[in-house]
């Protein structure tokens, strides 16, 4: 309904064969752009002889133009393999209608000839750069592209080198874990332990776990865990357990099961004391004994107030519990007690100290050797003092004797 001005005034002329009939002509010029495609152009002729004093004729503009494309459906969050679906639309604006072509970078075949590209569900093989383009008889559109990155949870490809690894005591050992995932997974090595409240012990944060100095603490089963995050949610894969077997001489563990030094026991005078140490060995120990002073008690024997249990199996493989019982503990019992263990590959010896608190004791008891040293020092000082006193008395008598001799000689003169 918007009036358009002609490029010049209308022309009026008579027809050659009928001078009384007039012919009127008007020319309008309109740019042929795609915004005008489909619009209606109306020419209105006005004359008093028309029944409605006007007659109109209409024409719909059909503007041909090359396609332009826009892409709809590009993912706004991570796509996870096997869970998410994707529908990409390549919408073309063209006259005449355009043909759509979907292609994938690095591949010669056409991905799709439809307006929509559907991936139901997406997989890791669908990841890549996708392009769409439209073409008609007028021309070809620019290319639109989208990069698809398909995330997937970790998967352990290998963990080893073997399901069972045997390592000599104090030698190095290494494990390797290989996993795939997108994003790239992080690694964690854990050791299964029997400690209550903490069934696993962290051993490493790299794909390769290296143990420079193998001890019996490292014996047991290990797991490799590969972890990544997809849309803020953790995804973890765990390997089958890998066993590390340690062989060698006995080793008395220098730490308690909680991982801290604890080789000291305190009891009150008159109470029973129990001294326990854990020893690991493969082969099994053939000799286990407790030693203190001049005494030695083999496992399963006893003397007086002292009794040694037979070694019992600990919760850890190839580890054993050795225990010494002391009844009616006295101050003279406070000392180090040594556990001596032997097998075919060697021996180990380690001490646990006993402290006995007396009835009136307010400070920690002193070692017997320290008390003997103090007593010896006091005795030596006392003897030196006596010698000095004897020397002083004898020196005084000598002085008086010389003085009396001097006075007698003076009288004689």
From TrEMBL:
Q: Where in the cell is it found?
A: Membrane
Point to the regions of Polar residues compositional bias. 8-21
Q: Where is this region: Disordered?
A: 1-21
Name the Gene3D superfamilies for this protein: Immunoglobulins
What the entry lists under SMART domains is as follows:
IG (SM00409), IGc2 (SM00408)
Domain Ig-like: residue ranges = 67-147, 154-243
User: Topologically, how does it sit relative to the membrane?
Assistant: Single-pass type I membrane protein
Transmembrane segments annotated in the record for this chain:
370-393
- Predominant cellular place of this UniProt entry's protein: membrane
One family from Pfam that matches here is Ig_3
GO biological process terms, semicolon-separated = cell-cell adhesion
Keywords, comma-separated and alphabetical: Disulfide bond, Glycoprotein, Immunoglobulin domain, Membrane, Transmembrane, Transmembrane helix
For this record, the Gene Ontology CC terms, alphabetical, are:
cell-cell junction; plasma membrane
Q: Which GO terms describe its molecular function?
A: cell adhesion molecule binding
The question of whether Disulfide bond is a record keyword is answered with: yes
Q: Which InterPro entries match?
A: Cell_adhesion_signaling, Ig-like_dom, Ig-like_dom_sf, Ig-like_fold, Ig_I-set, Ig_sub, Ig_sub2
Spell out the protein name for this chain.
Ig-like domain-containing protein
**Species per Swiss-Prot/TrEMBL record:** Anopheles christyi
């Amino acid at each position: 309904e918007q009036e358009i001005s002609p490029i010049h005034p209308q022309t009026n002329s008579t027809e050659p064969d009928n001078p009384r009939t007039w012919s009127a002509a008007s020319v309008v010029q309109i740019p042929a752009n795609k915004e005008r495609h489909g619009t209606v152009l109306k020419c209105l002729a006005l004359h008093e002889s028309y029944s409605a004093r006007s007659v109109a004729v209409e024409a719909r503009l059909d503007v041909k133009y090359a396609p332009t494309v826009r892409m709809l459906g590009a993912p706004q969050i991570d796509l996870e393999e096997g869970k998410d679906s994707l529908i990409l639309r390549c919408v073309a604006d063209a006259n005449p209608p355009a043909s759509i072509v979907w292609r994938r970078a690095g591949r010669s075949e056409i991905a799709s000839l439809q307006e929509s590209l559907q991936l139901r569900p997406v997989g890791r093989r669908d990841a890549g750069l996708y392009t769409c383009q439209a073409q008609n008889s007028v021309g070809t559109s620019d290319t639109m592209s989208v990069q698809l990155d398909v995330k997937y949870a970790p998967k352990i490809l290998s963990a080893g080198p073997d399901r069972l690894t045997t390592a000599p005591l104090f030698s190095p050992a290494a494990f390797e874990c290989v996993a795939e995932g997108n994003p790239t997974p992080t690694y964690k090595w854990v050791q299964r332990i029997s400690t209550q409240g903490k069934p696993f012990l962290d051993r490493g944060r790299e794909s390769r776990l290296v143990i420079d100095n193998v001890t019996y603490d490292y014996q047991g089963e290990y797991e490799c865990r590969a972890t990544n995050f997809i849309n803020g949610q953790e995804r973890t894969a765990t390997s089958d357990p890998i066993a590390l077997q340690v062989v060698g001489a006995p080793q008395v563990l220098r730490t308690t099961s909680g991982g801290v030094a604890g080789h000291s026991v305190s009891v009150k005078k008159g109470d029973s004391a129990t001294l326990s140490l854990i020893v690991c060995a493969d082969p099994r120990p053939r000799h286990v004994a407790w030693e203190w002073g001049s005494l030695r008690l083999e496992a399963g024997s006893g003397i007086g107030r002292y009794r040694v249990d037979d070694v019992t199996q600990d919760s850890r493989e190839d580890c054993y519990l050795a225990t010494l019982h002391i009844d009616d503990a006295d101050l003279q019992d406070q000392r180090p007690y040594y556990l001596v263990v032997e097998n075919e590959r060697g021996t180990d010896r380690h001490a646990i100290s006993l402290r006995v608190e007396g009835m009136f004791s307010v400070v920690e008891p002193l070692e017997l050797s320290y008390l003997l040293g103090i007593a010896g020092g006091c005795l030596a000082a006392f003897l030196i003092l006596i010698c000095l006193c004897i020397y002083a008395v004898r020196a005084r008598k000598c002085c008086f004797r010389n003085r009396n001799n001097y006075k007698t000689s003076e009288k004689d003169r």
